[in-house]
Specification:
This protein is α/β, with parallel strands linked by helices. It folds into three domains: 2-200, Rossmann fold (3-Layer(aba) Sandwich), CATH 3.40.50.720; 210-291, N-(1-d-carboxylethyl)-l-norvaline Dehydrogenase, domain 2; 296-434, Rossmann fold (3-Layer(aba) Sandwich). The protein is 46% helix and 14% strand. The chain has 20 helices and 14 strands. The strands form three sheets. The protein has a six-stranded parallel beta sheet, sandwiched between helices. A six-stranded parallel beta sheet has the order 11-10-9-12-13-14. The radius of gyration is 24 Å and the shape is elongated. The N and C termini lie far apart (57 Å).
């Protein structure tokens, strides 16, 4: 089967490479000539563990190729995936669907065979209806048998390849047998591995993606608020998380207290869901509270570091070593990273910030211009009045605490990810502050 993947960003490139690894013939299409040139040279536009090797092996095998020509890329393709960005629209928070609709129009004009057009991008309910209208208006549905399908992605950055190849479920929203049968063939390798395929209506599939992300964002925000309460009453949020996560109705995932969620999905998807709910006069007040609480938490974590330094007045002129700037480990993604707000809070208080991240510093520089980016965690720590752990990279889990104490101006650690045991850090001679472990 030939598959065309329109958009070679995070979702499109990972999905395309994985489909090629299943044995399909995949063409990844992108208008960015420089990105396509880099891909031809084996240079990945994003950092994702294992992606460069997966792309390289499938290019070598002749199953994966890249082009800037949509007409050439979709020629003879049985499935055409739309995997372009849907960022929050400036001014109102709605998902910006201009890229999706532009691709649909171009596909409609260029389509030369029967095909399924699949929205892989995260899109609000009824987007598939509009894509179908655009294809029909362009004449594609008069010339050929065409089905518009929703197939949302559920990839975690840093674990995307494993998530694609071993998914909890595959959601396919189709309105006709043609769409269902083509998609069943697309995912046949996973079906043989007994990965559950859930066929729904197109609108249900579109809403599943938003509902899933909103629910996960709610779990994160809930445990963060429990962490605040734990600090007030002298409880341990990790014990609370284990206690409630052991309940099969709740589950243990996404119950790690920290500085709030960020990334490419949760912030924009919760906001888009709110806007959709407003449009249909069906408010989702829980999600609304989640969004507001999470936004507030990021700067609150900056104030937590200031408090550890003795308060805003005492912190002025001091130095903080920030370990981690990406929103999570194993990615270079800085989108809505809590580190941005934390760093800005410190800078606004007159604190000098030196930061290190294994992958995200180039992306962080334009977003955090007043933060000094350095070449190692120990360089950041040198002369620091406090060490703040902001992202839970493995590289930060086993710091040489004796060396940290020797390099730092003051032995103070603020662990915003709870990756250390308090007794271990204090035994090494540090003053230690963490989240929700009162």
């Amino acid at each position: 089967m030939k598959i065309a993947m329109v958009g070679s960003g995070y979702v499109g490139l990972v999905s395309g490479a994985c489909f090629a690894d299943f044995g399909h013939d995949v063409v990844c299409i992108d208008k960015d000539q420089s990105k396509i040139d880099r891909l031809h040279d084996g240079v990945m536009p994003i950092y994702e563990p294992g992606l460069a090797e997966l792309v390289g092996s499938n290019v070598k095998a002749g199953r994966l190729s890249f082009t800037t020509s949509l007409a050439e890329g979709i020629k003879d393709a049985s499935a055409i995936f739309i995997a372009v960005g849907t960022p929050s629209r400036r001014g109102d928070g709605h998902a910006d669907l201009s890229f999706v609709y532009a691709v649909a129009k171009e596909v409609g004009e260029a389509l030369a065979n029967d095909a399924v057009v699949v929205t892989k991008s995260t899109v609000p309910v009824t987007t598939g209806d509009e894509v179908e209208r655009i294809l029909r208006e362009a004449g594609a549905m008069d010339r050929h048998q065409v089905s518009v399908v929703s197939n949302p992605e559920f990839l975690r950055e840093g674990a995307a390849i494993g998530d694609f190849k071993r998914p909890d479920r595959i959601v396919i929203g189709a309105e006709d047998d043609f769409g269902r049968e083509v998609m069943r063939e697309v995912y046949r390798p996973l079906f043989l591995n007994e990965s559950p395929i859930l066929f729904t209506s197109r609108r249900s599939a579109e809403l599943i993606k938003y509902a899933a992300n909103a629910f996960l964002a709610t779990k994160i925000t809930f445990i963060n608020e429990m962490a605040d309460l734990c600090e007030k009453v002298g409880a341990n949020v990790q014990d609370v998380a284990r206690g409630i996560g052991s309940d099969g109705r709740i589950g243990p995932k996404f119950l790690n207290a920290g500085p709030g969620y960020g990334g490419s999905c949760f912030p924009k998807d919760t906001l888009a869901l709110l806007k959709t709910a407003e449009d249909y006069e069906s408010p989702v007040r829980i999600v609304e509270a989640v969004v507001k609480t999470n936004d507030h938490r990021k700067r609150a974590m900056g104030r937590k570091v200031l408090d550890a330094l003795g308060g805003m007045d005492a912190a002025r002129g001091k130095k903080v070593a920030m370990l981690g700037v990406t929103f999570k480990p194993n990615t270079d993604d800085m989108r809505d990273s809590p580190a941005i707000a934390i760093a800005q809070t410190l800078v606004d208080a007159g604190v000098q910030v030196a930061a290190y991240d294994p992958e995200g510093m180039e992306q962080a520089k334009p977003l955090m211009p007043e933060v000094e980016m350095v070449d190692s965690p120990y360089t950041a720590i040198e002369g620091a009045d406090a060490v703040a752990i902001v992202t839970e990279w493995d590289a930060f889990r086993a710091l040489d605490l004796a060396r940290v104490k020797e390099l730092a101006k003051a032995p103070l650690m603020v662990d915003l990810r709870n990756i250390y045991k308090p007794e271990d850090v204090r035994a090494a001679g540090f003053e230690y502050s963490s989240v929700g472990r009162g």
